[in-house]
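We close this part of the discussion by returning to an individual protein. In the encoding step, the backbone of a single protein was reduced to a row of integers, each denoting a local shape. The sequence in question and its structure tokens are set out directly beneath this paragraph.
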Amino acid sequence: MHARVTQFSELLADLAVKDIKVWVEGDRLRCSAPAGAMTTELRDQLQGRKGEIIAFLNMATAAATQQPAIIPLQSRGTRTPIYAVPGHVGAPFSFSDLSKHLGGDQPFYALQPPGFDGQSTPMDRVEDIAEYFARQIIQYQPVGPYIIAGYCSGGPTAFELAKILAKRGADVPCVALFGPLHPSTHQEFLRLLYFTAWGTIRSVRRSVAKLPTFGARLRYFGSRLRERALMPLVRKEPVTTDPVLASRALLKSTAMTAFRRYTPTPYAGRLCIFLPNKAWLRSGAAPHRWRLVAPDAEFYFGPDDCDEVSMLEEPDAPAVAELYRRATQKLGD
């Protein structure tokens, strides 16, 4: 099935580049194209494979309803597909830059959690979210292998998802966690306090380093101090009435509840942990604690100036993509 999906995804992608639109009306395939865009080759493909294309489009329409968790960022490619869990805000397109820099031969699917669409109800247990993703993946691609990835607080869900798939006999050659937070980061108050302070200090240092003069740095510090001093005096904003913002806020709080409740258990598969920089080991995120449940976990470090907040985005995405390639080369993938 996966090869067939990839084949027709490539054809539709070629049509989309030329602004050629195809759709199904009943049992007929409809098409509209700008002048000169429809080549003889494309016309022959549409005519010769009309039945298959109609079936594929109907399947894709059904999949959009039946598999709302699967968001294709890159459908082409022959390498082992990646299924990636986003952080606690649940934004699947946070993986867009990373997917682009992994190249056109790497299928990449982001996983959209329940509640992100504003229609379904968020789940407050990592185990339940992982089970939901496992069902969606198996429906979409019944046979592995699968590489499971997770970012930030989505790391525990990715870890649990890989365990579920492996227990059901699926081939999971690698679990890739990008800047993962261990649940203990938010379970221990002093650790959370240290993690928050560490992140603030790193952010201030980066901002100061970009300022050209001593005077500019003094003004920056002054503005930060004024913000801190005025913070208790600022009246809290009223609760939003925007339904989209309200649903996202509910998803965020529910996801963090699930994250805090989760306790990882041993996993025998391959675990690769990609940290933005070596300093992240001292951040309070407790990445070393993943070795308590996966003793052979491998660590890969980005450059010193890699920003942990946006490590999957530009300009850091290329460096992180290179780390991933280095790790998967060991698999012969």
The chain has eleven helices and nine strands. The longest strand covers residues 21-25.
